[in-house]
Amino acid sequence: xxxxxxxxxxxxxxxxxxxxxxxxxxxxxxxxxxxxxxxxxxxxxxxxxxxxxxxxxxxxxxxxxxxxxxxxxxxxxxxxxxxxxxxxxxxxxxxxxxxxxxxxxxxxxxxxxxxxxxxxxxxxxxxxxxxxxxxxxxxxxxxxxxxxxxxxxxxxxxxxxxxxxxxxxxxxxxxxxxxxxxxxxxxxxxxxxxxxxxxxxxxxxxxxxxxxxxxxxxxxxxxxxxxxxxxxxxxxxxxxxxxxxxxxxxxxxxxxxxxxxxxxxxxxxxxxxxxxxxxxxxxxxxxxxxxxxxxxxxxxxxxxxxxxxxxxxxxxxxxxxxxxxxxxxxxxxxxxxxxxxxxxxxxxxxxxxxxxxxxxxxxxxxxxxxxxxxxxxxxxxxxxxxxxxxxxxxxxxxxxxxxxxxxxxxxxxxxxxxxxxxxxxxxxxxxxxxxxxxxxxxxxxxxxxxxxxxxxxxxxxxxxxxxxxxxxxxxxxxxxxxxxxxxxxxxxxxxxxxxxxxxxxxxxxxxxxxxxxxxxxx
Length: 522
Description:
With 522 residues, this protein is of the alpha/beta class. The protein folds into two domains: 2-56 and 91-170, no CATH class; 209-222 and 231-428 and 459-521, Rossmann fold, CATH 3.40.50.200. The chain is built from twelve helices and 26 strands. The strands form eight sheets. Strands 13, 14, 15, 16, 18, 20, 21 and 24 form an eight-stranded mixed sheet that branches. Strands 7-8-6-12 form a four-stranded antiparallel sheet. Strands 1-17-19 form a three-stranded mixed sheet, with no helix packed on it. Strand 20 (401-407) and strand 21 (413-414) form a beta hairpin.
């Protein structure tokens, strides 16, 4: 699982100039994130490219609609909303548009709409003006890990006239995420393994030490027959220069799925994304994700969505850009898997909420959004110790499916690396109430005070240790929830294939459907 680590650790107060009257504090970071140093005020003439998120007119109504089309006993189940219907819920009210236009005009600014529903605007201004308008002190911060500098403020305000109309200004208090990359779990080159012949539901003994597509087929009853419905596609997110190599894919298929040799993927790009094919460009994460979608979801059209480095105004390495990109499409993937994320405390609550709401929009239109849950238990992402549970983001968002890792074949148990816990940002959705009541009763006082009992994560788990992949021509095992998200995405798409073939609506937003129980019953 590719995650970022940033813990708030030192309380540093930065003086904030507020020459304007009637400013209301809107967001504040109490400490500089771990791994960043403060280098002093940003140059007054430096241009800031800011994004303003406007309040939507009926997000509660959209949430009701999402659950109505996603809950099996609802009369509206499977009747997913159109692009236009979703945007009608999300579009700002006329008085919100008037308020922001008045603010911009009075200050000589012009904004560009950058989201389909008109709820996100982009506006540029010098640091000096941003400091004045938002009662901020934009400063230069250096990431100690890579030396990159970024301009942020520890707090900002908005005019009283915009309260209730503006959800957030970004990037302001959310610092850039710095994702790591996974590694092989053991060094050296291994010879590609070959497909093991199976008899009935027998699980090959080799699966106890190495997981391959054949193991997954045997463990979970996943069919090897090709999908017959090609009305849509399975999307694989790619970030931070992680490129999926077709040469490595073909080596993997020859060893693990010879019936699928020469199957490949299509490419979509945004923010200057590319997908070079030199061996040195191979990305371990991207190869893993592509090999275990194409290698498990037999014959399913798969698209690798490469997000480039032109995301300096996103501050989330492309999370915000890719979801707005997909919201603008009329025929996006039915299933989207993402094996990247960060600790929940590295992102402002307001930004987390709006990104989660974007996933709700995509879910209401009929996309199953899956995220790997992270790789360090309740300590968050790639951490070594914690005193309180640290949830990962966006796994706590109630409008997507968080995927954890299991291990072993007799019996299968939770992998110790798999992140979980409870969100500190989001309220528990109704679909978790019954199971959470039982869980908390059994838990009793264990770990009392170390977590907030709201949205629980993860939602489902599958094999996530010793998963065999190929990268730069090298075959080897890899561990992590990164392995599980593409595997489960493939299962969902194959289930959808059967449902569509039978004239039934596909699963789409999974959580209210108790999909974990349904998969176990197949």
